[in-house]
């Protein structure tokens, strides 16, 4: 079932009417119509496509998935593609939902590629700012983009918090290296997925605001400027997070290398200490006479030499912070 609405003179006149009645409402120049489809086929869009004169290439892009965020301009309408995003702190993954929209002077047709895009939340934004509904298509576009961009901003903020928590784990006394690697690569993957939908929105919103497009009126222009500001902040934030994730990974590898060097230093120092008694006992193990040969005094002399040299080496290594 498609969601439908019609506004007249900035007032919501009717909702949830059959799609077949769209042509009747469009005969009124003061009417603004919104129609929403979820997972339609080209056949499902045939009627509305013929009514609004939608370009065949735009209809094809609206049906097929994995389009890039963009704004295409055709003779009778504009075609918009965008993605909503949500970050799950439990799994550390970003879920995206694709949306396509046909923009005509008096109608907005949204096409959701799956039910993950919360179109009811968009409708609630329209209802909460009904005083702006006189702007028609500009009003509907703003509510739609404001929801999308706010979702991007919230996802970036949640990712930032997860990366900060990852930084704290890096400097634990005994960090779980396997868990650190798993979380860092998972967050890096999520950030990459998010950047692919956040960065192109700068061009999309900027193109919508161009005067020659005639899609945004003077009343709604400041509101679109606010959306554009959020887009820029989210884009710059993702760039800084990418550098931060790389820095966290580099720091983790450096700390691992430092810990390995420290372990090797300690092992080498203890090996040097153990080499002293090995050398002394090996020397005294020769089958030739030596001072104290076959006497208790010789045994005690060799023992004292071992202890003194081992203690001297330990003190020397400790003073140099090798142990």
Automatic annotation (TrEMBL):
Bilayer topology annotation: Multi-pass membrane protein
InterPro entries associated with the record: CorA_cytoplasmic_dom, CorA_TM1_TM2, MgTranspt_CorA/ZnTranspt_ZntB
A cellular-component GO term for this protein: plasma membrane
Keywords from the UniProt entry: Cell membrane, Membrane, Transmembrane, Transmembrane helix, Transport
Compartment list: Cell membrane
GO molecular function annotation: cobalt ion binding; cobalt ion transmembrane transporter activity; magnesium ion binding; magnesium ion transmembrane transporter activity
Main subcellular location: membrane
Domain of life: Bacteria
A Pfam family of this chain: CorA
TM helices/strands, residue ranges: 267-285, 297-317
Gene3D superfamilies in the record: CorA soluble domain-like (3.30.460.20), Magnesium transport protein CorA, transmembrane region (1.20.58.340)
Family to which the UniProt record says this protein belongs: Belongs to the CorA metal ion transporter (MIT) (TC 1.A.35) family.
Protein name: Magnesium transporter
Organism in which the protein naturally occurs: Amycolatopsis saalfeldensis
């Amino acid at each position: 079932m498609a969601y439908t609405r019609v506004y007249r003179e900035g007032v919501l006149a009717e909702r949830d009417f059959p799609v077949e009645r769209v042509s009747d409402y469009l005969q009124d120049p003061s009417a603004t119509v919104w129609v929403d489809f979820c997972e339609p086929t080209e056949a499902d869009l045939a009627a509305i496509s013929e009514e609004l004169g939608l370009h065949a290439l735009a209809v094809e892009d609206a049906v097929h998935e994995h389009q890039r965020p963009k704004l295409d301009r055709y003779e009778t309408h504009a075609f918009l593609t965008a993605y909503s995003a949500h970050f799950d702190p439990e799994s550390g993954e970003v879920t995206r939902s694709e949306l396509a929209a046909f923009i005509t002077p008096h109608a907005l047709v949204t096409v959701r590629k799956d039910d993950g895009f919360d179109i009811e939340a968009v409708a609630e934004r329209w209802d909460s700012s009904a005083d702006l509904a006189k702007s028609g298509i500009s009003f509907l576009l703003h509510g739609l983009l404001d929801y999308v961009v706010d979702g991007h901003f919230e996802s970036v903020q949640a990712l930032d918090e997860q990366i900060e928590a990852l930084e704290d784990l890096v400097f634990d006394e005994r960090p779980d290296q396997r868990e650190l690697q798993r979380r860092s690569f998972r967050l890096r993957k999520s950030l990459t997925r998010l950047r692919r939908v956040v960065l192109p929105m700068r061009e999309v919103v900027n193109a919508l605001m161009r005067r020659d497009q005639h899609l945004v009126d003077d009343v709604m222009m400041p509101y679109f400027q606010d959306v554009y500001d959020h887009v820029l902040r989210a884009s710059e934030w993702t760039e800084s997070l990418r550098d931060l994730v790389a820095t966290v990974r580099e720091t983790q590898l450096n700390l691992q290398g430092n810990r390995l060097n420290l372990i090797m230093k300690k092992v080498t120092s203890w090996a040097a200490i153990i080499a002293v008694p090995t050398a002394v006992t090996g020397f005294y193990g020769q089958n030739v006479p030596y001072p104290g040969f076959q006497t208790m005094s010789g045994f005690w002399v060799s023992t004292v030499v071992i202890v003194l040299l081992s203690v001297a080496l330990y003190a020397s290594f400790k003073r140099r912070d090798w142990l």
